[in-house]
Amino acid sequence: MMIATNAKERIRRSMLFVPGNNPSMIQTCPIYGADTIILDLEDSVAPSQKDAARRLVVHAVRELDFAGAEIAVRVNPPDTEDGKRDIEALKHVDVQVLLIPKAETPEYVVGVDRQLGDLPTALIPMLETPAGVLRGSEIAASCGRVVAIAFGAEDYATSMGIQRTKAGREVFTARCLVAMAARACGVAAIDTVFVDVNDEEGLAADTREAISVGFEGKLSINPRQVETINREFTPTAAQIDRARRVVEAYEDGIRRGLGAIALDGKMIDMPVVQRAQTVLKMAKAAGCDGAGGERE
Amino acid sequence: MRLNMLSAAGREIPDSIAGRKTVAPYRGPFASGPAGPRAPMPASCSRPGENKTLANLKEAIQAVGLKDGMTVSFHHHLRFGDRVTNMVLDTIREMGIRDLKFTVTGPHPVDDLFANYIEDGVITRMEHGFIVDELGPILTRGLLREPVTIRTHGGRPRAIEAGELSIDVAFIAAPCVDRFGNINGADGTSRCGSLGYAMADAQYARRVVAVTDSLSQAPLTRISIPGTQVDHIVCVDNIGDSSKIATGAIRSTKNPRDILIAQEIAAAVEASGLVRDGFSFQAGTGGVSLAVTQLVAGIMQREKVHGSFLLGGITGSTVSLLEQGFFDAIYDVQSFDLDAIASLGSNPRHVEISASYYANPHNKGCAVHGLDVVILSALEVDTKFNVNVLTGADGVMRAGPGGHPDTAAGAKLTIIGTPLLHGRIPAIVDDVITVVTPGETVDVVATEYGLAVNPARQDLLQSFKQARLPVVSIQELKARAEQMAGTPKRPEFTDEIIGVVEYRDGTVIDVVRQPVAWAGR
Q1: Is A228 helix (H, G, I), strand (E, B) or coil?
Q2: Would you say B86 and B111 are in contact if contact means Cβ atoms under 8 Å apart?
């Protein structure tokens, strides 16, 4: 099995869920600027609609132009009949990523890996229970298809028997564990959804919090959230400028054979350079690495 | 023999149409001026101490001498709450008067129009601004003696003033009337705000009957239609259902696709450079328009721009911009919600205007000609930027021009906002079914897939590109719509003309022919 070479490098700032049984939302979803579109066959589809949604999603992936967005599908839990049918049906169309809900063990993900055979499909397991969060690094390292792990706070809170709050203290530790597990295994960490679609300020603050603990992207349940999420994950003009200067100074130092490289009187070591490279990669994905268009 | 002429919008127009004295094809937005002086206004004489109030509608109909074959008019300010039209037409039918021409200023449902008045021959002809409910199928089946004439909000008062639409009796639903016959729409239990569309009817109709449920003992101090134009007053229990006359504040959209279109439009308005001190603006009452209005206000705030006037159909959202000091004045031809009505009654900067001042091109000036920007919608737009706001994809009339062609012609920047598909029907096509607003008056079409700029506006195209707006060609939009939904099969039409689409200057821009599927039904 080989996943597509760019699947690990890909920027996934915003990952927008679109109900798999809603043709008009599927048709319009590419216009909102989400980096990844997740056609959902799981939670947003009623049990009686599963077959119809699966057919619709297969047809949409085959026929529609998603304007360059990455196409993912959240399948039903792969140990259910619906989940097995979902994966089987999607093997015949060009889906780049499958989201695996409620992953709690590495074996669970390896099962999907086997079912996919030689296909280049990447996987993003969703950690939505305490068991899943605690085995995050094993799940992230379970097979070469895993490009990211995603945190699902709503189901996590239900399994913990706790109330969700806007401040999110109750999920802070779990969030940090997911981000750490991802970093430890060299995959991306994707943050949970923010459910109050009318609270743009709250969404922005929640996204900044996710960024501060190491997430590289965020799930979204409404197209109106995409712009805010993308904006928060996009480096500011000052950050881009600083990153550019760091990388330039580093490359210049290497050319000149310098042992220690400094910028503005401060040492630049490898982690600083890597962080700067990530900033530039994000900026490029956001289309603001050239002239104009940067955030203030 | 009937010969076909071509309107400047490229549509075949017959040289004679039943019910019309002349047929002049459309030649361009400002190519045709008035044919002569205005029609005379009716004169009358009154005596001291006369009482205008009559006991009931029957007495009033007798007093004005309504006879078979005459023209009666109504206004649409009570919107879906109106009860006056049915009351008057019921009385007319009971009195055995027939063969009337029925004309209304705008969208206006009449209960059981066909069963009550058309099948019996009470109404045999119509001149309308807007087609709602069962009227579309009635007209499409060809149940009237003559094709319906469709006029714009500015074209209708123009036609009245030119004597082309000659009204015998105007029945004016009047929210508040004093004993002299002075009328306003801002007071009374059935208040509707502006009475702008009823003003030309009151001025030029041979006889005018005010129908009210609120007869003020005190003389009115706020007068929309003066008693000099009103012959009789009839009091009834209730002129309308107030819950359907005006709603609570109309809210902006939460539909993400519409918000995206609104954001694109607002960015286009800003890039045009027109948002500067003295800015004037009109947007409709739909979700996209309200969202654009809020976004434009945000631009004005950021750029510290002080606007001149807001125009058109007024909502609470427009009123709040006036109250926050973004604009100097509102010119209100129709009030759409309770906030707008309250503001019209209390804020001297919120000014009631007539439809003629709003949009009639054959005046010494009209408000739409002072507009910087107007935001409009469409049923379909073609690759020549012509807009159809009248006929559906099946060829049946289902809406109407309103002020669409008037504001498009008047504004410096006209933007049509539309989703690429209405349901599964492409909104961008090769040729619209009916041209209502000519493409030469449309500058930009905004969809969720980008902005298409009329090639005649290279200046705008450059500004939009500089501002890095998502500019696409109208052909690209059409191709994308067809890629998603397929190429729509257009209805076939017979030669039977069922509607005449007048441009605002009185020329004929297009005609509506009967779809083959409806012939003989």
Answers
A1: helix
A2: yes
Q: How many folded domains does chain A comprise?
A: 2
Token pair recorded at residue B433: 């079914």
Widest distance between CA atoms in chain A:
67
Instruction: Report B:227-266 residues touching A (Cβ under 8 A).
Output: 254, 256-257, 259-260
Chain CA centroid to CA A147, Å: 9
Which residues in chain B have Cβ-Cβ distances shorter than 8 Å to A64? 484
Alpha carbon distances (Å) from B502 to B22, B406, B499, B521: 12, 12, 10, 27
Which one is predicted more confidently, B362 or B253? B362
Smallest CA–CA distance, residue B450 to chain A, in Å, is 9
Give domain status of residue A3, yes or no. Answer: no
> What pLDDT, on a 0 to 100 scale, did the predictor assign at position A2?
66
What range does the domain containing A257 cover?
Answer: 237-285
B387-388 and B380-382: which strand pairing?
A: antiparallel
Element at A122 (helix H, strand E): strand A122-127
Q: Is A110 a domain residue?
A: yes
Nearest to A128 by CA among A106, A157, A107, A105: A157
List C-alpha distances in Å: B178 to A244, B47, B271.
76, 17, 50
Which chain B residues are Cβ-neighbours of A32 within 8 angstroms? 256, 260
Query: Over the range B81-91, which residues count as b (16 or more CB within 10 Å of their CB) and which as e?
Result: bbbbbbbbbeb
Provide the 3-class DSSP secondary structure of residue A37. Answer: strand
User: Is A222 in Cβ contact with B260 (below 8 Å)?
Assistant: no
3-state DSSP assignment of residue B150: strand
| CB atoms inside a 10 Å sphere around CB B314 | 29
Please give the structure tokens belonging to residue B390.
Answer: 């009248």
Residue in B423, B449, B483 nearest the CB of A31: B449
Answer whether B449 sits within 8 Å of A64, measured CB to CB: no
B47 interfacial to chain A (CB closer than 8 Å): no
Name the residue among A129, A133, A136, A124 with its Cα closest to residue A184.
A136
Domain positions in chain B are 50-245+500-518, 256-490
Can you give the C-alpha Rg of chain B in angstroms? 23
Confidence of residue A291 (pLDDT cuts 50, 70, 90): very low
The residue type found at B201 is: D
Q: Are B440 and B456 in contact (CB under 8 A)?
A: yes
- Say which CATH topology domain B256-490 has: Glutaconate Coenzyme A-transferase (3.40.1080)
Residue B102 to residues A191, A242, B14, B153, B211, Cα–Cα distance (Å): 63, 73, 24, 17, 17
A211 and A271 together in one domain = no
Measuring CA to CA, which residue among B218, B234, B177, B214 is closest to residue B54? B234
| Nearest CB to A32 within list B256, B468, B483 | B256
Residue B236 has pLDDT above 80, yes or no: yes
Which residues is B452 bridged to in the sheet? Answer: B445, B472
Q: Hey, of A28, A228, A294, which one would you mutate to test binding to chain B, going by the most B CBs within 10 A of its CB?
A: A28
- Report yes or no: B350 and B310 within 8 Å, Cβ to Cβ: no
Min mean pLDDT across A19-23, A180-184, B420-424, B428-432 is at B420-424
pLDDT for B161-201, tens place per residue?
999 999 999 999 999 999 999 999 999 999 999 999 999 99
ipTM above 0.85, yes or no: no
Kindly state whether residues A85 and A120 are assigned to the same domain: yes
Position A272 pLDDT exceeds 80: yes
Chain segment B461-491, per-residue pLDDT in tens: 999 999 999 999 999 999 999 988 888 889 9
CB contact under 8 A, A28 and B484: no
Q: Are strands A122-127 and A97-100 parallel, antiparallel or unpaired?
A: parallel
- Phi/psi of residue B25, each to 5°? -70, 150
pLDDT of A124 above 80: yes
Q: What is the CATH number of domain B50-245+500-518?
A: 3.40.1080.10
CA distance B448 to chain A (A): 7
